[in-house]
Each structure stands twice: as C-alpha cells, then as structure tokens.
Design brief:
By secondary structure, this protein is mainly alpha-helical. The protein has a domain at 16-68. Helices cover 54% and strands 0% of the residues. It contains 2 helices and no strands. The protein has helices at residues 16-43, 46-68. α1 (16-43) runs antiparallel to α2 (46-68). The protein is elongated, with a radius of gyration of 25 Å. The mean pLDDT is 78.
Amino acid sequence: MGKEEPISITSAQESLTKDQSGRARRYFISMMIRTACFILTVILPSPYRWIALSGALLLPYIAVIVANAGRETIQKKTVYFDSEQKAISDGKSN
C-alpha cells in the first residue's frame, strides 16, 4: 500500500510554501503554452498564425491573474458586522 494523504479537519489555509509552489507551477505552464504559441506563429499558415500570435500576446496577462489567484484572506464563511450602532426603541412612539 502507498502512503495515504492525511485528512484535514481544520479550515486553516495551506502552507505558504505549498501555495507559492502551486502558483509558480501554474505560471510556468502558462509561459510554456505562450512559448508554443510563438513557435506556432512561425510555423502555421496565415489565418492560424494570427490566432497563435494573439494567444501569445494575451497569455501573460491571463497567466499573472491565474498565478496570483490564491491565498485569499476573505473566506466565504466570513461574517461582517455593521459598525453603525443601532438604538433599541423603548416601544413608545413619538
């Protein structure tokens, strides 16, 4: 039998090292796809060449957004309280 992954019973985030390595991996993959787009720009005939070139030019923007997505500080279960204090009425109308 192989080594089993431990079950997480906490809502704590992943370690910073794991998070950074995952983001670096996603960015690296995106840049390899960009490199392939540049190579295809040279190899492909005219209509497809422009599609590959546009992919190569747009991919850095998309890669940065995807690589930076993660390690969010606001979680879905976060509850926000209104800082404005509300008065409790005494039941009498003015």
